[in-house]
Amino acid sequence: MPTADELKQMAALAALEKIEGGMKLGLGSGSTANHFVKSLGARVRDGLDIIGVPTSERTAQLAKAEGIRLTTLDEVPALDLTVDGADELDEKLRLIKGGGGALLREKIVAAASRRMIVIADDSKLVPHLGAFPLPIEVNLFGLGATRAAIEAAAYRFGQPATLTRRLAADGSPFVTDGGHAIIDASFGLIRDPEGLSLALSAIPGVVEHGLFIGLATSAAIATPDGVRWLHA
């Protein structure tokens, strides 16, 4: 029986098979995406010619260490493909992302890509989104008012949420690469992901949220029996 880490690597290697020379790639963040970046680095050292846009400072550091040539969306505003992980996904390829705190850059990069492959082990595939708390990146200014607006939006959808400001490992308030806070919203079952997504985006203090809807085009789901592909 493969371990969770071995399953993550299986999913990463399945996505790697879709990479072709000359591609402009979005490089995701998180433990599963790290497997992809490391495997991609090995192919680059063997002669694969690609260029990548990292979705976090950590991914940028890893990609540089692997010898992957990097660029920015200012220099290359349209990408061929993004490969990234997910904290949860359903059969419709709706995602919850942001457990690592990079959701804003992840969503910007995914939206700039023609395609997005999600890589995950089978524990991340769920019937309904919401068991994983939804990360919401918020501006520090007006944090209390933004929090109240998030609670009100959740109430309108009939699912009061428990909101918790994320803390760093040392107990200090977590700050994203963009200088924002993250509120983790525990909704339980999210009954209407599309509606909730629009409602959260309409709150002025919300910079971005971790519901990724209509962005993923396929997913490589690693199971003990092999990799299962989902397509939008």
TrEMBL record:
Keywords: Isomerase. Substrate binds at residues 29-32, 84-87, 97-100, 124. One of its GO terms (biological process) is pentose-phosphate shunt, non-oxidative branch. InterPro entries: NagB/RpiA_transferase-like, Ribose-5P_isomerase, Ribose5P_isomerase_typA_subgr, Ribose5P_isomerase_type_A. Pfam families: Rib_5-P_isom_A (PF06026). It is an enzyme of class 5 (isomerase). The active site is at residue 106. Its EC number is 5.3.1.6. GO terms for molecular function: ribose-5-phosphate isomerase activity. HAMAP family: Rib_5P_isom_A. Homodimer. Catalyzes the reversible conversion of ribose-5-phosphate to ribulose 5-phosphate. This is Ribose-5-phosphate isomerase A. It comes from Kaistia hirudinis.
